[in-house]
Write a structure and sequence with these properties.
Elements (H helix, E strand, L loop, with lengths): L6 H33 L6 H7 L1 H14 L12 H24 L8 H9 L5 H40 L4 H22 L8 H26 L3
Amino acid sequence: MTHFVPADARRTKNSIIVYIVLTAALSSSFYLLVIHRSSAGRSPGLLILGLMWCPGVAGLLTRLGFQRNLRGHGFGGGQTKYQFASYWTPLVYPSIVYVPFWLAGYFDPKNRTLDALMHRLPQLPHAAALPVLFLFLATVGMLGSCLSALGEELGWRGFLVPQLAKVTSYPRVALISGAIWALWHYPLILFAGYHGAGPLWYSIACFTVMVLGLSFLFAWMRLKSGSV
């Protein structure tokens, strides 16, 4: 017995497939360039920024190709409560892990941001360095992060999440989008040194669990707020 799929659902699924293929195609050149520079011991520089914009560009192009406009991509600001939550979430969830260690004196000597701060303010005690660094990340650092992260968000949450939500349930939306989000980073983890100092399998496992967990929160906020 043939299962009938409504035309709108087929079109949505086709758009998702096109988006994934286009994201992979756009990202492939940047993967190669980033891996080449990293293997040569050179910083990938702006190549990383270009790579991070590949999902977003693919999402914009796919939406334009399928519906001839960008309605539904989440460019609106959304309600204030969601703006507040989305602003503080990236600052709060890592703080739950890092703050206790930093306050206990386990500062990472290779943390370039912290080193630069202590170099500019040599009289600043370590106990005060963390709040100052947090303030910097919450203002200037946040603006810089938005420039790069927006590229990914316009793809994963701007296009992929709302399209998936048209054809499947919220848990599956979060899992599928999270899995694609994680897999997209794997070439960098495997070949460009985008991982911690521990075993590679451990870095991949931790990263995947983190991304899948965050995808539930990010997908929920995207669908509730209607905004990237």
